[in-house]
Each structure stands twice: as structure tokens, then as C-alpha cells.
């Protein structure tokens, strides 16, 4: 991060090059019929953002706006993954054009406040049950309660997902199925034999 302060001109030139290439990629995706783009940008630690809002606005926001603008001009939605706690940047990210956030740690937030912010801005959440505070516990009651809380808290703006690499987070497949089936039951769908069925 010191380069952002020590070499602002060089960083700006690099960002212009990268953003230009990504805009071209967005147009190629649109030309091929894609309906959205998804990118990953881990902006937070467990309890704070990695870069202050003022610097983020100055250094990064114009590039986000350029990318989301290119996607929206082509009728595409913009999904963004970010690990960690990003509350200080959410308003800026929403204003910059993010349509749906993919968070794996929703319990890092005050979830009712997060749901209210997203709902009031018509922004979605794509998320599993929290992969750090809930899923790795192996506590069936806690996992099922966490799944139901997700459905109830974010209903109407939630895309639930299963985490793609359970061994990496110390979660057994059976535990993931507890969450998955609790989600289906909370939504009145029933149960399934495997995630995604």
C-alpha cells in the first residue's frame, strides 16, 4: 500500500492500463452474450477495510465506475466478491455500480443493518452461511440456525450458495448439507441429497 502514496503517478498509469484491458474484456463478454461480470477484490480484514475510504475514493473508485459503467452500458449486471469487513466502503461500492456482493463472511457485519442497506439500494447478496464464525464449528444447531437467519434477514435479495472448497475451511460435506437443507426448508422448498440439486 505504500506504493499508492510513494508512486501515485505510476500507480495511476498502471490502473489506466489494467482498467482499459478489463473494459475490453467486458465488451467481449457482452458480445458473446454474457449477462454479467464477476470480479474479486478482497478489501477487508476481519474488522476493517485494508485502505481508508478517502484513498479508496481517490485511487480506485474512478476505475470501478469505469468498469461497472461499461458493463451496465451493455446491459450486464456486476457481481463483486470481497472477503472481510467492508462496511466503510459499501456506500461507495454501491454508488460505483455494484449490483450484487458476494461475501463469504456475512456474520462479520451487523446482518440486519447490512440487509437494510442492500435492500434500500436494490443490491443483492450472494453468500453461503458464514464460513468463519458458523460453518467450521460443526455444530448442527448453530449451522441450521445460521442458515435460517440468512434466509430471513436477506429474503428478497439473497442468492444462497455453497462454499466451493469445504476442506480449505475445515468444513465437512455433511455440515454443508445441514446448512443447505435448512435454507431449502426455510424457503419452503424441502430438502436435497447434495448441494445444488
Automatic annotation (TrEMBL):
* A molecular function (GO) term: uroporphyrinogen decarboxylase activity
Q: Which residues form a coiled coil?
A: none
Q: Which InterPro entries match?
A: Methanogen_methyltrans, UROD/MetE-like_sf, Uroporphyrinogen_deCOase
A GO biological process of this protein is: porphyrin-containing compound biosynthetic process
According to its UniProt record, what is one Pfam family this protein matches? URO-D
Where does the record place the Uroporphyrinogen decarboxylase (URO-D) domain?
Answer: 3-153
PANTHER family attached here?
METHYLCOBAMIDE:COM METHYLTRANSFERASE MTBA
Q: What is this protein called?
A: Uroporphyrinogen decarboxylase (URO-D) domain-containing protein
Its taxonomic placement starts with: unclassified sequences, metagenomes, ecological metagenomes
